[in-house]
Here is the input.
Amino acid sequence: MREDLKDASSRELVAEQMLKDEGGHSSSMTDAELEYLEVMEEVKTISSSLVQAENAFDMVKKEIESLVQQYEEILEQIDNDDAGSSSFDSADESDMGDAESDSSENSRFERERFARRVQKAELKAEVAAREAQLAKVEVEKTRREAEIIRMQKEQELNDLKVRCICPK
Here is the structure.
């Protein structure tokens, strides 16, 4: 898209130069003036699309980074809880008869709770990845559309150049 913007900007400068060279004093718009206005509009459209694509990409990137961070924190909590509960379980085995079953029940409950949180984080990460893919597809679609417009405008500009060089 940046290349498309660069191309459109250079065509805008060419059209502006044609406009200056033509120096028409008639009341109607000349071909060079029309071309200049069209190219200006194209530059504006491509710039806007590029900004939107970059914003969408940044937003999805930040969301993915946030979800990855949450996922890592949850995994770290699970690792810490597993390490802590195993040392307590072995120390408490000899001292606590019925309390052991309560402790293991609480531990199992905590593991299930963390497993659900991990599953939610994975689902959110998957959704964010899909959104990123959709944004990427949309950017590619916009880029193709901009390229088609660029080629059309380039052809129109070449036609105008030919008309300016070889008046009939």
